Amino acid sequence: MEYAFAILMFAFGAGLLIYALFLAGGNYDNILRNWATNPPDKEKYTKEFGKMIALLAIPPIFGGALSFLINTAVAGVITGVLFALFFVLGINHMKKYL
User: Considering the entire predicted model, what is its pTM?
Assistant: First the structure.
C-alpha cells in the first residue's frame, strides 16, 4: 500500500499519454465531446489538443516518481500544483486554434 500513489499516478499518466498518441493521428472524432467546438482546421486542432494532453501527462508521472523519494502527501501537493499550472498553460496554448 506504500506505493499505491506512485502506481496510480504512473497509470493515470500512461493513460493520458496513450490518449495523446491517438490524437496525434489528427482524427477529430477521437476528441470526446467534439461537438462542443468547431475549429477552422480540425486536424491541426486535434494534433495540438494531443500535445496539450501529453503535457498534462507530465505532472502525474513526475509526482509518481517523486513519491518514491519524498512523503506521498508532499508529492501529491506538488503534483496538484503542477497539474493546475500545466492546465492553465495548455488552455492558453489552445486559444490560438479556436
Answer: 0.84
